[in-house]
Amino acid sequence: MWHEMFAQQVPFAEKVIRTVLVYALIAVLLRATGKRGLSGLNSLDFVVMFLLSNVVQNAVIGADNSITGGAIGAVTLVVVNTAVTRAALRNEVFARIFEGNDTPVIRSGRVDQGAVRRLGLRRHELDRAVRLQNGEDVRDIESGDFDPDGHLILTLKKDARDANHSDVVRIEARLERIERLLLERG
């Protein structure tokens, strides 16, 4: 019994190669689905993720059902993922290939319908992001980019922004000058 649990049925090198190839395939598939596929997952996305892991399981482990074979596959996945993540941190070209670039979706209050359609964004998602930034409407947005992680990054137009600390300090200083002038005249 113990021997069967740990006896490898597939050679170590084959197990590593299988795992790396499946990792690359899944990375390409996820990259091909676009940024939208990596943002907020819905229930159908979870179904696909669960089924996908089951579909590629045999491709990773082959005919090997041993604990050792599973451990080799798991360790290989973690090592390859760590290497890819670190390579993306060090190399801008590598990061762009594996992670992608920001996609402009709003410029000067206008929605780029082509970009929104390609990304699979819905209008209510844009509107919600605008409200989260304290904007009233897409017209209040100077720029909006969809980043590779699936986040919508918005910048409000200057006249649509709430007052910040420096604005308050400037107004207080102005009020103090006005009060001094009024006291000097009065």
Automatic annotation (TrEMBL):
The chain crosses the membrane at residues 12-32, 44-61, 67-89. InterPro entries: DUF421 (IPR007353), UPF0702_alpha/beta_dom_sf (IPR023090). The keyword Transmembrane applies. Its main location: membrane. The keyword Transmembrane helix applies. It is a multi-pass membrane protein. It is found in: Cell membrane. Residues 90-162 form the YetF C-terminal domain. It comes from the Bacteria. Keywords: Cell membrane, Membrane, Transmembrane, Transmembrane helix. PANTHER family: UPF0702 TRANSMEMBRANE PROTEIN YCAP. Belongs to the UPF0702 family. This is DUF421 domain-containing protein. It comes from Jatrophihabitans cynanchi.
